[in-house]
Design a protein that fits this description.
Blueprint (H helix, E strand, L loop, with lengths): L1 H8 L10 H11 L3 E5 L7 H11 L6 E6 L4 H9 L4 E4 L4 H25 L11 E2 L5 E2 L1 H8 L10 H4 L17
Parallel strand pairs: 1-2, 2-3
Antiparallel strand pairs: 4-5
């Protein structure tokens, strides 16, 4: 409750759970971007919660901070191997926690920006080929088919159908004698 109050006073929106199982249900329903969990909780401990969050594989990344009274290298490594992004020992200094939350916000913002950039496809405005990660250009059909189970058929839409080679509206045949 002290951490919740302190984080709220610092301007953060806080959702609280009584135990690890409730924290998991809260994560599933609210999809928070930052989770601060105690290692030692009833029903589902903080490391188990981190493992479940990592296994969930949502599109938006969740930054996990684990709080614990356990110290030492082994505890730190165990927490990080469980999927924690940060690890703080208790008693927690509120100013340090606030600084770590600001770092979490920066990481999440950078991850969101990177995801947006990954979603951009460089496409030639003339031939509609796509440049892949290896700097080669390939037809859009090959690009999509190699990454999905989509297959393509060739056809003309009604607008382009009248512009097919040899048709009266074909721009290449305009002005030619029949």
């Amino acid at each position: 409750m002290l951490l919740s109050t302190a984080l709220t006073d610092l301007g953060h929106e806080v959702l609280s759970a009584e135990d690890g199982q409730d924290a998991w249900y809260l994560y599933m329903s609210e999809a928070p971007r930052i989770v601060i969990t105690d290692w030692m909780m009833p029903k589902l401990n903080g490391l188990e919660l981190c493992r479940k969050i990592r296994a969930d594989r949502r599109l938006r990344y969740t930054y996990c901070i684990v709080l614990t009274a356990l110290g030492g290298r082994e505890s730190y490594l165990e927490g990080m191997n469980a999927g924690a992004d940060d690890f703080l020992t208790k008693p927690v200094d509120i100013n340090i926690l606030h600084a770590r939350v600001r770092v979490a916000e920066r990481v999440i913002r950078l991850q969101s920006e990177a995801s947006e950039l990954e979603g951009l496809l460089p496409i030639c405005t003339y031939c509609k080929k796509i440049r892949d990660g290896q700097e080669t250009w390939q037809p859009i059909e090959h690009y999509v088919a190699s990454r999905t189970e989509t297959s393509f058929t060739q056809d003309l839409c009604p607008e382009c159908g009248g512009k097919a080679p040899g048709s009266p509206d074909d721009p290449l045949t305009e002005g030619r004698l029949p």
